[in-house]
Specification:
The chain is mainly alpha-helical. It is about 75% helix and about 0% strand. α1 packs antiparallel against α4 and α2 packs antiparallel against α3. The longest helix has 24 residues. The model has no long low-confidence stretch (mean pLDDT about 90).
Length: about 120
């Protein structure tokens, strides 16, 4: 339990680096998809990939802003998932599945980092 925040940090870093790499490949035309790609969604994913990497550092160091950054990322992903699921008709199921994955991982990160007193007070 003493180092549980490091698991949350590694999860945040992993999902962040995956988002940056995958999104950058799509934006640069290195990776093409067999479905409609929403460029704004790919840009969102790359930006939040970088934010996730910063969040990983904050979680690792038990920074005072850890709770806020976790809440920000998780809330942003949940709101976007709701939008994609219910309000946007042009989104591919792969995009929704990827956002469900992100929400799931960030929910785990929140549970680990916020429920076990891993944040400096």
């Amino acid at each position: 339990m003493k180092h549980l925040h490091k698991i949350a940090s590694l999860l945040a870093f992993s999902i962040g680096i995956m988002s940056v790499i995958a999104g950058s490949k799509v934006l640069l035309g290195i990776d093409t998809k067999n479905y409609t790609v929403l460029n704004w969604l790919v840009i969102y994913n790359v930006i939040f990939g970088f934010i996730s990497i910063v969040a990983a550092y904050l979680i690792w160091t038990k920074h005072i802003f850890t709770k806020k950054v976790i809440a920000f990322v998780l809330t942003s992903h949940v709101l976007l998932l709701i939008y994609l699921n219910f309000l946007n008709e042009n989104v591919a199921s792969e995009s929704i599945n990827a956002m469900v994955f992100r929400v799931s991982v960030w929910s785990i990160i929140a549970l680990i980092a916020l429920n076990y007193n891993t944040v400096k007070k």
